[in-house]
Amino acid sequence: MTSEPWWKIFYDFTPFTKSIDEGLRSSMSPFWAVTTEMVIVGILFLLFYAVVGLFLVYWERKVCAFIQNRLGPNRIGPYGIFQTVADLIKLLFKELIPIKNADSFLFNLAPYIVIIVNFMVLGAIPFGKGLHAIDFNIGIFYVIAVSSMSVIGVLLAGWSSNSKYSLIGAMRSGAMIVSYELSLGLALITMVILAGSMQLSVIVEAQRTGWFIFKGHIPAFIAFIIYIISGTAETNRGPFDLAEAESELTAGYHTEYSGMKFAFFYLAEFINMFIVASIASTIFLGGWMPLHIGSWEGFNKIMDIIPPFIWYLGKTFFIIYLIMLLKWTFPRLRIDQLLTLEWKYLLPINLVNVLIMAFLVLMGWHF
Amino acid sequence: MTANQIMFILFSVMIVTFSILTVTSRKILRAAVYLLFVLVSTSGLYFMLNYQFLAAIQLTLYAGGIVVLIIFSILLTSHISQKFESIEWKKSFFTALAVIGGAIVTIVTILDHRFAASKQAAAEVNMRFIGKSLLWTGFEGYALPFEVISVLLIAAMVAAIVIAKKSGPSGSDSQTLKK
Questions:
Q1: Chain A residues close to B76, C-beta within 8 Å
Q2: How far apart are CA A71 and CA A79, in angstroms?
Q3: What's the distance, CA B149 to chain centroid?
Q4: Is it the case that residue A360 has pLDDT exceeding 50?
Q5: Which end of chain A is more exposed for a tag (fewer CB within 10 A), N or C?
Q6: Which residues, listed in sequence order, are joined to residue A131 by a DSSP beta bridge?
Q7: Is residue A286 part of a domain?
Q8: Which is it for the CA torsion B115, B118, B123, B126, positive or negative?
Q9: Distance of CA B10 to CAs A68, A256, A269, B39, B41, Å?
Q10: Which letter does DSSP use for residue A252 in this model?
Q11: How many domains are there within chain A?
């Protein structure tokens, strides 16, 4: 830490986190050191969650405005960047309306399930070199497993609100998430075959000589497209937003929620999109790994000048931008079209794609 | 008390409490949610043992799969105002007897068995090893059970489709039973 210039930390966080760890362990017992670390990491994630959530809400409104030829938020702060902060303060002061004849325990529990699942997934994502809270050896599988629970929050919210709109929204979203989970998982499994590992740090490291979307060429690209489609569906976003179709269901499963509880659902949806995009950037676009081309030393050196954390954010926000464009470009699907798309098109294509990828890896036809 | 013990006690208390709540709750969706808590705590125990694969299986199959299906079917069939009727005392008396008997048998068996305590840290299970033994046809391989289960699952799915299928346009060639 002493001899190296301070900006080196942006390229590799490992020495920084290690020095904090050693400092804590030398001053207190291991139990309290681990507890303190968990609290620090938890607070960092909370801050990250809030900042990213607020920024994404602002950005979505700007992208929407751009596509609809409007200006979007532009009054509070330069280019309206503090608009969502003002919205948040408004939501904080709003009344939490209790619902008559609702199951209040489940009603209050539902937003927390969604939020907790979000945090559990965020913990496993590599944000940069050395910025990785937990590195499971089953990385991707853990992400799939945990994110399969977020639908429970939606279903509970819909049922316990004791409202027709909420129930219909929850049913739609349940049917959609359960079916699109298959495509999501299979698209990731395709890439696991190429990577030969499920550990996210190993997967990122394996892309040092080129991102997987280039290494695995055709099947990887198909898997990427399927992943983006099913990821969009998983997050209940347009064109798959029939769970909260405004014109038919007012707001779908969170119709009856108000104030901060509504904000939880709203934020969770955006963070879900962020998670989908981060997983896509980690698996397909190399995560924090800069753009490297095989053994072109000079080119790779130039690319290394940009810190890994910036690479990660850049790729993630690029994918988020893609997902937002999808939402504001396509009309909403009907439920039968949605299920047809998944079960008759995406799933068979996906299964064949897994076979192609396995064959490709066996023959060594990837780069 | 080490951190491990604290976590173990926390998980065990959660499992026991929510198991009891699952069977005593009179609201069906709450019971399902308590069951979810039990299953998630169990996967926490697996994480403590460093058997992350099993923990993730527990989460994805039981918490994310079965509980979601249970909740889904509750959503389709029951209304929020519905409550289970309280059970008559005869039924609950005999159920309690059976439960206590089962508990005694289990506890005696556990106390009888001598568990070899090990001070070794739990080793991480290699994913490659799990994958290979799942598809291994030789000794200690699970390829045959794997295939048998898949045939069983296909049979169950075909049966479900036949039951749920609408009758044809004429309605006369339907395979389903008629009254």
A1: 171
A2: 9
A3: 17
A4: yes
A5: N
A6: A128
A7: yes
A8: negative
A9: 52, 34, 31, 14, 9
A10: G
A11: 1
- State the residue for tokens 């396995």: A358
Q: Distance between CA B162 and CA B166 in Å, rounded?
A: 9
Is residue A263 assigned to a domain? yes
The alpha carbon of residue A128 is apart from the nearest alpha carbon of chain B, in Å, by 23
Cβ–Cβ < 8 Å for A85, A91: no
Spatial distance between the Cα atoms of B164 and B178, rounded to a whole number of angstroms:
14
**Domain range enclosing A205:** 101-363
pLDDT (0 to 100) of residue B52: 83
DSSP state of A128: B
Choose from A261-270, A293-302, B94-103 the range with maximum mean pLDDT: B94-103
Distance of CA A350 to the CA centre of its chain: 21
Tokens standing for A301? 């050196």
ipTM score above 0.85 = no
User: Shortest CA distance to B129 belongs to which of B120, B142, B116?
Assistant: B142
- Write out chain B residues lying below 8 Å of A174, CB-based: 68, 71-72, 75
The pair of structure tokens assigned to B2 is: 């080490």
What pLDDT is stored for residue B153 in this prediction? 92
pLDDT tens readout for residues B100-154? 999 999 999 989 888 877 777 767 777 778 888 888 887 778 888 888 999 999 9
Report the gap between the CA of A89 and the closest CA in chain B (Å). Answer: 32
Q: Among A141, A348, A42, A240, which residue's Cα sits nearest to residue B64?
A: A141
pLDDT one-digit tens code per residue, B64-104: 888 888 888 888 887 777 777 777 888 888 888 998 999 99
Distance separating alpha carbons of residues A51 and B111, to the nearest angstrom: 53
**A with B: how many residue pairs have Cβ under 8 Å apart?**
88
CA distance A193 to A187: 10
Question: In the beta sheet, which residues pair with residue A128?
Answer: A131
Once rounded to an integer, what is the mean pLDDT over residues A60-75?
86
Query: Which pair of structure tokens corresponds to residue B38?
Result: 């039990």
The answer to whether residue A262 is domain-embedded is yes
Separation between Cα atoms, residue A41 and residue A145, nearest integer Å: 22
User: Does a structural domain hold residue A126?
Assistant: yes
Taking contacts as CB-CB distances below 8 angstroms, the residues of chain A near B36 are: 152
